[in-house]
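User: What would this chain look like folded?
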Amino acid sequence: MDLGDFQLFRLALHELRTPLTSVQLNAQLIERSLVKLGLENECRLAGTIVSAARKLDELTQELGDVFRLCSGKIALDLRTHDLSLILPEILSRHGGTTQAHRVHTMVPDHPLPITVDARRLDRVVGNLILIGQRLDVLGIGIDLRASASLAEVEISVSVPAGPAEAALAPPGDDELGLGFLVSRILVECHGGKLEAQRGPAREVVLRCVLPRR
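Assistant: Here's the prediction, encoded as structure tokens.
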């Protein structure tokens, strides 16, 4: 992406945020008024608008963050963390949106030091869990695993394959969505890589590899 693309991207985000903020604030006011009037159905519909506007606002903030990283306006906050501790914490924080009971976590019970920007890693792992649950057509849950070698750490989300998926290629970017693209950029900013592949049992594996530095 060249300088002109970055400038267009920044302008588009700015133009999007202004009406989005207005929609969110006015929808919240309408929701409160409907609560006072006791109109439950209408209040539920207004709540849906508020929730959708909030998600769009979070997405624009996330895209803005990625833009600033890619353009060099901000730097990663790199610190050494114990991955065996922060992965369960990440899952707990995202429990309200990820149905944590459908995530089977397999993390080493010994310290797993890694130098990362913890806030961005939280975003990456949260995105991968949400994508994995969306792909889990069988509804039996997904696996979140972490392992390490001397040079790198691997975090993966595995999704069991349905009967109709056994012969399919890994899902492409269109199916994985914007969250996967944002996560891949964040991982690459750390010097790592993020890819989707098929495992030995034809399961979908969202595989994130990060250097241990």
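The chain is about 55% helix and 20% strand. If you want, I can go into more detail on any region.
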